[in-house]
């Protein structure tokens, strides 16, 4: 992969949230370690699926990438520019290149604004076009996402959840960005509607050459839209690989446990499969475990796991894993 092919590059990204409540917390500088030394890159026109349990730091990573929150340390580069260093007009210009689709469309859409006003707002902020041109652009965008352009004067509450998410996608697409952060865009939708929205995202990516960072907790959803999948646990990346390679040859015990939990529609095959059940709950990010952050729940953990942080090493071409005991040729998942 050459540097010119890479649109987004994240290097040694950290994000800590200080805890200010209570005298004890303030005195000892308590903090939530939400993102810990995360590294990945996305090629132009591709989709990287970022998966993991709730609280693993996926959404925080996405918000650091788009500069909704500032990282504690590390570098986020989009098209070769350090996002954290952008200010003023440069930061405003960056907003045209990177947008986000939020998880809850009802919460992310102002209920007092019509969908025409919501989708045209980016044009107004960036002073693009006349009022008539903006209306024409909004109608075109509504048509692109499968909504009736004549509904431009309606309010968000007049639409279903899937339709509201389409409105959010249209708003994110308005400025023709290069990169879109999809923060669990289908998790709040019915299964049939999920498929429609995923197909819409795929068709828009092909038409406009979009690059996606697709955040989700459902591995079966990520499989259908991603080119590369990165698995996250308690703020750290455990494994990253091309989608087919990861699903057929998972190296990390955490990845294997997640894949074993995906139901198979064939009852006979499902009955023969064995679940990998993890003991206990994820540790608190306020006091994460030493060494490998997964070792307290790992079925193959040994002493070294609690003493030393495993390096992210390449175990196959394009396939990297952060585990002291990653097997070179693991058994494919059934």
Please count the beta strands (DSSP E, at least 2 residues each): 12
Question: Would you tell me the overall average pLDDT?
Answer: 89
Task: Provide the structure class.
Answer: alpha/beta
Sequence of strands across the biggest β-sheet: 6-7-8-3-9-10-12-11
- Uncertain stretches: 330-334
Fraction of residues in β-strands: 15-25%
Largest sheet: 8 strands, mixed
**Rg result:** 21 Å
By DSSP (H or I, 4+ residues per run), the number of helices equals 13
- Summarize the amount of helix as a percent range: 25-40%
Our measurement of the CA-to-CA distance between the termini, rounded to an integer number of angstroms, reads: 31 Å
Form type: globular
Q: What is the assembly state of the chains in this entry?
A: single chain
Order of helices and strands: EHEEHEEHEHHHHEHEHEEHHHHEE
Describe the structure.
The chain is α/β, with parallel strands linked by helices. Helix content is 34%, strand content 22%. A hairpin with a 2-residue loop joins β4 (73-78) and β5 (81-82). The two termini are 31 Å apart. Residues 330-334 have low confidence and may be disordered.
Give keywords.
alpha/beta; 4-stranded antiparallel sheet; disordered C terminus; 8-stranded mixed sheet
Concise structural overview:
This protein has 334 residues and is an alpha/beta fold. It is 34% helix and 22% strand. The chain contains 13 helices and twelve strands.
Give a topology summary.
Blueprint: E1 6-18, H1 23-27, E2 31-43, E3 47-51, H2 58-65, E4 73-78, E5 81-82, H3 88-97, E6 98-101, H4 105-108, H5 115-125, H6 131-144, H7 161-173, E7 179-183, H8 191-208, E8 211-216, H9 219-225, E9 228-233, E10 236-242, H10 243-248, H11 253-260, H12 267-272, H13 303-307, E11 313-316, E12 319-321
Parallel strand pairs: 3-8, 3-9, 6-7, 7-8
Antiparallel strand pairs: 1-2, 1-4, 4-5, 9-10, 10-12, 11-12
Helix pairs in contact: 5-6, 5-7, 6-7, 7-8
């Amino acid at each position: 992969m050459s540097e010119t092919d890479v649109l987004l590059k994240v290097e040694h990204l950290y994000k800590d949230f200080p805890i200010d409540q209570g005298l004890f917390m303030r005195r000892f500088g308590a903090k939530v370690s939400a993102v810990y030394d995360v590294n990945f890159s996305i090629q132009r026109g591709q989709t990287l699926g970022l998966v993991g349990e709730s609280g693993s730091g996926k959404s925080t990573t996405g918000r650091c990438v788009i500069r909704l929150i500032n990282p504690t340390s590390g570098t986020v580069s989009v098209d070769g520019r350090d996002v954290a260093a952008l200010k003023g007009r440069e930061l405003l210009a960056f907003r045209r290149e990177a947008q986000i689709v939020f998880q809850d469309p009802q919460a992310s859409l102002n209920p007092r604004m019509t969908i025409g006003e919501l989708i045209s707002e980016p044009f107004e902020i960036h002073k693009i076009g006349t009022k008539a041109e903006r209306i024409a652009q909004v109608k075109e965008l509504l048509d692109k996402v499968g909504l009736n352009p004549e509904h431009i004067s309606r309010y968000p509450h007049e639409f279903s959840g899937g339709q509201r998410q389409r409105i959010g996608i249209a708003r994110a697409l308005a400025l023709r960005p290069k990169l879109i952060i999809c923060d669990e865009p289908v998790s709040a939708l019915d299964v049939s509607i999920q498929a429609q929205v995923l197909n819409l995202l795929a068709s828009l990516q092909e038409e406009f050459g979009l690059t996606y960072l697709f955040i989700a907790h459902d591995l079966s959803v990520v499989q259908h839209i991603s080119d590369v999948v990165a698995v996250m646990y308690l703020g750290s990346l455990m494994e990253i690989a091309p989608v087919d390679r990861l699903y057929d040859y998972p190296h990390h015990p955490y990845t294997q446990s997640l894949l074993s939990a995906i139901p198979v529609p064939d009852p006979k095959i499902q009955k023969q499969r064995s679940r990998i059940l993890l003991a206990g709950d994820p540790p608190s990010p306020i006091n994460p475990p030493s060494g490998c952050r997964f070792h307290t729940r790992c079925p193959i953990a040994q002493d070294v796991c609690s003493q030393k942080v495993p390096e992210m090493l390449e175990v196959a071409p394009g396939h990297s894993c952060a585990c002291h005991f990653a097997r070179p040729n693991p058994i494919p998942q059934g």
